[in-house]
Design a protein that fits this description.
With about 260 residues, the chain is α/β, with parallel strands linked by helices. The chain has six helices and five strands; from the N terminus they run βαβαβαβαβαα. Strands 1-3-2-4-5 form a five-stranded parallel beta sheet, with helices on both faces. α5 crosses α6. The longest helix has 24 residues.
Length: about 260
């Protein structure tokens, strides 16, 4: 079993990969994350967790790590300087092109490891498109499933911590502490949303939103003030372990018996 970086391979050596090799594509974003975090937060997260999980999973399966996508669907943050985003149609075309190109070689398994919630719906559509057009087995993994998509949220954030809050800030304090300015971290939880029974993050009715909709004024949706490097280490290590286990399944998964 082996781990390779796709970028290190020569053209001929790509053919040494097999149909059971899992190609892992980190998908992040370049977008505002409040005044205390860097715009590359999601990209840093995608790269770190994808690499860690790929290395761990290679103890029992073959993994090749593709170079990550930094620019993605971040139009919910388009109001803010520093957000560099692709339209849905552009990102979908990029994913389609990459899938088509990958399918020219021996690899038949492609896993997206996503670290930006705004990408999730489009990546989910791409899974079936790449399956039907190019015969790839496709998978969507998450660095952390966002609260607005059913993921867990710290209790102090009332289920509303979806951007620049406790967990993301803690993870960055662990991964890249030099990029975090905790003196600018402020609690910005849109507590008024709890008044709605059906509409809201993780509830039965979802809604379209941009990160300047909630009146926080700073682009944060959550409470980063209690973040620590120790919490970040725990979160990142857990994400790596969970995604490594998922990649091991991706290597042997078949939809038919």
């Amino acid at each position: 079993m082996a781990f390779t970086r796709f970028t290190d391979l020569s053209g001929p050596s790509v053919t040494d990969l097999s149909a059971d090799t899992v190609a892992v594509l980190p998908v992040g974003a370049i977008e505002q994350h409040g005044p205390h975090l860097p715009v590359a937060t999601d990209y840093f997260m995608a790269e770190a967790i994808a690499e860690g999980a790929a290395l761990a999973a290679s103890d029992s399966c073959d993994i090749t790590l593709l170079p990550g996508l930094a620019y993605a669907k971040s139009d919910e943050h388009a109001w803010s300087p520093g957000t560099l985003w692709l339209s849905a149609s552009t990102l979908f075309a990029v994913l389609d092109d990459l899938g088509r190109a990958l399918a020219k070689g021996p690899v038949r398994r492609l896993a997206f490891l996503n670290a930006h919630g705004g990408n999730s719906a489009l990546l989910g559509v791409a899974l079936r498109e790449l399956r039907t057009k190019y015969g790839l087995f496709t998978f969507l993994l998450h660095a952390a499933l966002p609260a607005d998509q059913g993921g867990a949220s710290p209790s102090g954030e009332l289920g509303l911590g979806v951007h620049g809050g406790l967990n993301e800030t803690a993870a960055m304090l662990h991964l890249h502490p030099e990029t975090v300015d905790m003196s600018l971290a402020t609690r910005s939880v849109p507590e008024h949303l709890t008044a709605y029974e059906h509409i809201g993050f993780g509830k039965s009715v979802s809604f379209g939103w941009t990160s300047d909709d909630f009146g926080t004024g700073n682009g944060i949706i959550g409470d980063p003030t209690g973040a620590t490097p120790e919490l970040g280490r725990k979160l990142v290590d857990t994400a790596i372990a969970n995604n490594a286990a998922a990649l091991r399944e991706c290597a042997r998964f078949l939809p038919y018996a």
